[in-house]
Structures are given as structure tokens and as C-alpha cells.
Amino acid sequence: MKRRVDPTASLRVLGMARTLSKSEQAQLSVVYWAALDEFSHGRGDETHFDSLAGAVNLALVLAERSANNADAIALIQSAQDALMRAQHRSKTLGRYGFDGPGYAAVQAVLDLHDQQLALCTGKQIIDAMDEAIRRMRVGYVFEISA
Questions:
Q1: CB half-sphere exposure, 117, CA atoms < 13 A
Q2: Packing angle of the helix pair 22-40, 46-64 (nearest 10 deg)
Q3: Which residues contact 37 (CB under 8 A, 6 or more apart)?
Q4: Is 107 contained in some domain?
Q5: Helix (H) or strand (E) holding 3
Q6: Torsion of CA 93, 98, 99, 103, to 10 degrees
Q7: Cα–Cα distance between 1 and 108 in angstroms, integer?
Q8: Is the pTM for the entire model greater than 0.70?
């Protein structure tokens, strides 16, 4: 049987080894920044919550894989707590929203995540996404800290 060869395979591999272009970074970040904007105007919904949670969880995996990460991880954990409070608020009040410190924590993590996207290769981001998804599938979830 004759094996089919993909002449563009090497280009895809090389593309995964480079950092993201500004345009690629913007395509990823526009989703979570728009979600935060919706939250800030009282229009946040489950889709926006999921976008923010995905970005924060991805930021955590990327931070765990970098050196000198203790401050970043602590900041990300405070944003995760803020997301859990927002989710609780949606269940009790019927709408999503952050308290002041929660909004500030999530905004700071999104700024951090923008910096991470500027430094990571496509492969590093895909690997981190795979790990974040794996964690969700095995039930690695967050609860509000005491």
C-alpha cells in the first residue's frame, strides 16, 4: 500500500515551535477580555464565565510549568476563588458578577495570561490546554477558599 505524504507537515511542526504572532495572541485574548467586559457591565453569563475560567485555568498550567512561579500561582488561585464566588452569586442571585477584589484578581490574571501568550509556542499552549482539559475530566475542580 502506498503511503500518502503530507508536504506541509514540516511547516506545521515549525509553526508549533514558534511563539504566537500578535494576531494569534489577539485572537485568543479577545474572547476572555470581552467576557470580562460583559461581567463588568452586569451582562456576564455562563458562556462568559466559561471563557474566563478557561483562560484562568490555562494561565495556571502555564505558570506551573515556568520557573519562579509562586507569586503567579497565588494570584491565579485568587482569581479562581473570585470565579467560584461569581458562580455562587449566579446561583443565588440569578446573575454573574464579581466583587471588587475578585474583578481585580481576574483582570490581573488576564494581564498575566497575555504575557504568557506572548512568550509561549503554539505547542506549549496546546499542551497546556490538553492538561487543563484532562484535569476537568478527572474532576479536579475548585471550591471557594475559606
A1: 22
A2: 130
A3: none
A4: yes
A5: none
A6: 180
A7: 55
A8: yes
What is the span of the domain harbouring residue 69? Answer: 19-137
DSSP 68: S
Domain-embedded: residue 2? no
Smallest CA-to-CA distance from 60 within 26, 27, 83 is with 83
Helix axes 100-119, 46-64, angle to 10 degrees: 60
Distance, in Å, from the CA atom of 132 to the CA atom of 140, rounded to the nearest integer, reads: 9
CA atoms within 13 A on the CB side of 30: 6
For range 89-101, the mean pLDDT = 93
Number of domains into which the chain is organized: 1
Residue 86 located in a structural domain: yes
Q: 24: part of which helix (H) or strand (E)?
A: helix 22-40
Task: Using alpha carbons, select from 69, 72, 62, 64 the residue that is nearest to residue 109.
Answer: 72
Residue 74 is placed in which grid cell? Answer: 497565588
Query: How many helices (H) and strands (E) would you count in the chain?
Result: 6, 0
Residue 58 belongs to a domain? yes
Q: What is the pLDDT of residues 19-40, one digit of tens each?
A: 889 999 999 999 999 999 999 9
